[in-house]
Specification:
Elements (H helix, E strand, L loop, with lengths): L5 E2 L3 E5 L5 E5 L10 E2 L7 H6 L7 H6 L6 E6 L5 E10 L7 E6 L8 E11 L2 H6 L3 E8 L6 E9 L5 E9 L4 E5 H4 L10 E22 L5 E4 L1
Antiparallel strand pairs: 1-4, 2-3, 5-6, 6-7, 8-13, 9-12, 9-13, 10-11, 10-13, 13-14
C-alpha cells in the first residue's frame, strides 16, 4: 500500500507571515472535516537513531574544501533533514584545548532586507599579530537567483557616529566573508581600530548577513546576526 500525504482541495500552502510556509483555507470548511494528513511510517526513536546518517563535515569530505568550517547534515526530531555549522578551533598542539559552536540552520524565509550587527571590535594590525584584542568579519549569503544591492555602514557605539560605508552588488546564490574594514575599505587607518562599534545594513531583496568576531589570542569565534 502506498503511503501518501493528503491536503484537502479546500486548502493551499503559502508563505507564512510568522515563519516558513503555512496551510491556509481557500474555501469554507465544516467542523471535523479532514484538511491534512501527513503520510509516512511510525517508527520508534531507537529505530530512527540506528538508521540516521550524520555527515560531520560535508564541505570537506564531499567537496574537498577547507577554511569554511564544518557543515554538518543530520535529522531533527521530526525526521526532516537539517544542516548546521560547527567550527572547531583545535589548539591542543599548544595545550589550549579546543572550542567550537553550533549555528542553527536558517531557512530561506529567515532572510531580511535590513539589520544591525552589534558588539563588534577591531584591534590594530600589530595587536592582531601579537594575539591581542579581537577582529571582526562580515559575511553574507544571497538566496536569490538575481543580484542584490546592499549598503553597509559602520558606526561608533559610543555616539552612533558614522565611521564609513560601502554600497555594492551581491551576485545571486553567492556567499562571501571578509574583514569588516576590507569590506568598508574607505575608512582611514586610524579609524579602523575600534574597541566597540556596530554595522547596519540594508538590501534590495532579502539576504542573510552575519558577523564573526574572532579572539586574536585563541582564535575562538563569536557569531553575531
Amino acid at each position: 500500500m502506498k503511503v501518501a500525504s493528503y491536503l484537502s482541495p479546500k486548502t493551499g500552502v503559502r508563505p507564512s507571515g510568522i515563519a516558513g510556509r503555512g496551510l491556509y483555507a481557500t474555501a469554507p470548511l465544516v467542523r471535523g472535516e479532514i484538511v491534512s494528513v501527513k503520510g509516512g511510517h511510525l517508527i520508534d526513536r531507537a529505530t530512527r537513531e540506528r538508521n540516521k546518517a550524520v555527515i560531520n563535515d560535508v564541505v570537506g569530505s564531499q567537496f574537498s574544501a577547507t577554511g569554511l568550517g564544518a557543515l554538518k547534515i543530520g535529522m531533527d526530531d521530526d525526521g526532516d533533514v537539517v544542516t548546521g555549522v560547527r567550527v572547531f578551533n583545535d589548539q591542543r598542539a599548544i595545550n589550549q584545548g579546543t572550542s567550537g559552536f553550533f549555528i542553527p540552520p536558517r531557512g530561506l524565509f529567515g532572510a531580511a532586507t535590513s539589520g544591525t550587527l552589534p558588539f563588534l571590535s577591531q584591534a590594530s594590525t600589530d595587536d592582531i599579530q601579537a594575539g591581542l584584542g579581537f577582529r571582526s568579519n562580515i559575511g553574507w549569503f544571497n538566496p536569490n537567483v538575481t543580484p542584490v544591492g546592499a549598503t553597509f555602514e559602520a558606526h561608533r557605539a559610543s555616539d552612533g557616529s558614522l565611521i564609513g560605508s560601502v554600497s555594492l552588488t551581491i551576485n545571486g546564490l553567492s556567499q562571501l566573508q571578509q574583514a569588516v574594514f576590507q569590506l568598508i575599505s574607505g575608512v582611514a587607518a586610524a579609524d579602523q581600530v575600534q574597541t566597540d562599534f556596530y554595522v547596519t545594513w540594508t538590501a534590495t531583496l532579502p539576504i542573510h548577513v552575519y558577523a564573526a568576531v574572532v579572539d586574536d589570542k585563541t582564535g575562538d569565534v563569536i557569531y553575531v546576526n
